[in-house]
Amino acid sequence: MTGFDLLVRGGLLVDGTGRPGRPADVGVAAGRLTVLAPGEAPRTGGATEVIDARGRVVSPGFVDVHTHSDGVTLLGPSGGGADDGSGRALVRASVLQGVTTEICGNCGSGLFPALPERLPAMRAEARITFGGDVGMYADFAAFAAAHARVPRANHLASLVGHGTLRAGVLGPVDRPARPAELRTMCALLDASLSQGAAGLSTGLIYTPGSYAGTDEVVALAAVAARHGKPYVTHLRDEMSRVEEALEEAIEISRRSGAALHVSHHKTAGRYAWGRTERTLPRIAALRAEGMDVTCDVYPYTAGSTALAAMLPPWANDGGLAALTARLGDPAERDRMRRAIAEGVPGWENTVGNGGWDRISVACAPRHPHTEGRTIADLAASAGADPLDVAAGLLVAEAGEVTIISHSMVEEDVRRVLAAPYAMIGSDGVPKPGGRPHPRWAGTFPRVLGRYVRELGLLRLEEAVHKMTGMAAARFGLAGRGVIRDGAHADLVVFDPAAVADLATFTEPLLPPAGIDVVVAGGRVVVRDGEETGARPGSVLAL
């Protein structure tokens, strides 16, 4: 046996399968792994670098199954268009918490595909979701080529977003797709899946995806099924109608033949608290019947999204320009106010289920003084109605306002985390500036520190499996998510007694404690909790 490029010696191997940890050394050569019995390594001819992992856990690199990191590395050297330190922190936050593969294109929103003539108009809309000029791409191949020109520390895979696909063919309009348009959408989806995209995602609370009926999604999910790739959905409602929305997702999966994955499963808003006691048994029963259905979850009781998503769907019909015009019209604002108070059939209505006092501004680039404050507080200070304050902020920021929604309860989060078919995803939204949700920097160490070590909700091996092997299997990441001979050399070395999230809503990008070493593509990208500058990451074609 020849020598290794890297030898991780003396650690407790937790291999990503869920099996009990065991002492073992792990060698890396040419980007692949070899598992060695303790004491076997000296007979192999040594190693270029040796990492002492005594007292540490050695696990596969974490797979973040739910991110919105589609464009952050395309924004410039720091992820903010300038090498300013804070932007660099935004880009590196994921890998510092041990994530070696990110899956983007979630919630129906991504940077591809679209008809060529639609790409210029979609760039402005992309700014709202991703911040900055990240570009739009005709297909997965063009998206991957753009990322290949920008060195990255970890790997990236991408789903095809239904909302982006719809906007790329129809535009941001509230009407059903015509038969010819649906055929074009299916063809664009088929091409990107053939090129290596990981599956189809929907965000059925977000426009323009919310304008689609069930039949449209079934037709598209059937394309994913032919490729053996999953249908991944942000349900049409995660609040008072969450059970009905889950049934729609089940119908789409059954009719299309696609495996079903429910994104960031939650029962949010005061009218849905506790309903995981019904949704989780429903999923478990489906699995017992043989249905391929899974979900992911982040370990926080607050979510994050765009402020515009707090408005009724018709407000966004026609895109940003149309929204801005409506927000400037007092009569239209009154109509929006009534819609929030009374509800709209088929609309989730986050504010109506919670209140403006649970919605705080995360990022408003031109109005940083609003960041960290609730809309209700801003309105009280101004002696104004909260809807008018939200409308004024959206107009002034050209729609680029991100919010934090404090909408869940801990009991529901714990139930989903404990579900044996639930994996871990940050739902991180790494937009430059402001105060992003701390989940982008803290999700994985938070699970290991709080829910494994402190609360005992999960066994260590179980938690690692949710972060690695289970996730890799769901999304077709062959040779990743497990430590075995010949697997890709993506590793994390962490201290089980110290690992913890340090990021907060006030300081959301603080790196975690206890993540000592991260290896991606066979190279050390984090050592002693700091980036090394190595950039072995790639876009994965699946």
Automatic annotation (TrEMBL):
Q: Name one Pfam family in it.
A: Amidohydro_3
* Domain Amidohydrolase, chain residue ranges per copy: 49-526
Q: What is this protein called?
A: Amidohydrolase family protein
Highest taxon in the source lineage = Bacteria
Concerning InterPro entries, the annotation shows: Amidohydro_3 (IPR013108), D-aminoacylase_insert_dom_sf (IPR023100), Metal-dep_hydrolase_composite (IPR011059), Metal_Hydrolase (IPR032466), Metallo-dep_Hydrolases_sf (IPR050378)
What is this organism's lineage?
Answer: Bacteria, Bacillati, Actinomycetota, Actinomycetes, Streptosporangiales
PANTHER family linked to this entry: COLLAPSIN RESPONSE MEDIATOR PROTEIN, HYDRANTOINASE/DIHYDROPYRIMIDINASE FAMILY MEMBER
